[in-house]
Automatic annotation (TrEMBL):
<dbReference type="InterPro" id="IPR036390">
    <property type="entry name" value="WH_DNA-bd_sf"/>
</dbReference>
<dbReference type="InterPro" id="IPR051011">
    <property type="entry name" value="Metal_resp_trans_reg"/>
</dbReference>
<dbReference type="GO" id="GO:0003700">
    <property type="term" value="F:DNA-binding transcription factor activity"/>
</dbReference>
<keyword id="KW-0804">Transcription</keyword>
<keyword id="KW-0805">Transcription regulation</keyword>
<dbReference type="GO" id="GO:0003677">
    <property type="term" value="F:DNA binding"/>
</dbReference>
<feature type="domain" description="HTH arsR-type">
    <location>
        <begin position="27"/>
        <end position="116"/>
    </location>
</feature>
<protein>
    <submittedName>
        <fullName>DNA-binding transcriptional ArsR family regulator</fullName>
    </submittedName>
</protein>
<dbReference type="InterPro" id="IPR011991">
    <property type="entry name" value="ArsR-like_HTH"/>
</dbReference>
<dbReference type="InterPro" id="IPR000835">
    <property type="entry name" value="HTH_MarR-typ"/>
</dbReference>
<dbReference type="Pfam" id="PF12802">
    <property type="entry name" value="MarR_2"/>
</dbReference>
<dbReference type="InterPro" id="IPR036388">
    <property type="entry name" value="WH-like_DNA-bd_sf"/>
</dbReference>
<keyword id="KW-0238">DNA-binding</keyword>
<dbReference type="InterPro" id="IPR001845">
    <property type="entry name" value="HTH_ArsR_DNA-bd_dom"/>
</dbReference>
Length: 116
């Protein structure tokens, strides 16, 4: 049981190899926390709607996202601010127009699964 931390080594395993396999699968706790934050962002129907729209039609403006999603421009802007802060989307300025595109390709498979 080489992967079991010292503070948990006193526990008697049922299957000697299973705890190590599970620890290896869990991996870095910081990575798990980062994915949990992504899932938290995806748990909101409005934000998920915007990400699906951006993934398929991006780069796309706030106004066009509001039209597509049925949300107000203000609600779209608020949601995009959260998604931008989390690194999931990034703005692209074209004069006065700002369009958004996906910045984190790791969420594409999740969006594809949600869209199907």
């Amino acid at each position: 049981m080489h992967l079991v931390p010292a503070d948990r080594a006193h526990r008697t395993p049922i299957d000697d190899h299973r705890p190590c396999e599970a620890i290896a699968a869990i991996g870095d706790p910081a990575r798990v926390a980062a994915w949990a934050r992504r899932f938290d962002l995806l748990s909101d129907p409005g934000r998920l709607t915007l990400l699906l729209a951006i993934d398929s039609a991006g780069p796309i403006s706030v106004t066009d996202l509001a039209t597509a999603s049925g949300m107000s421009d203000t609600a779209v802007s608020r949601a995009l601010r959260l998604l931008r802060t989390a690194g999931l989307v990034e703005p692209e300025r074209d004069g006065r127009i700002v369009r958004y595109r996906l910045a984190d390709p790791a969420i594409r498979p999740l969006l594809a699964a949600a869209a199907s």
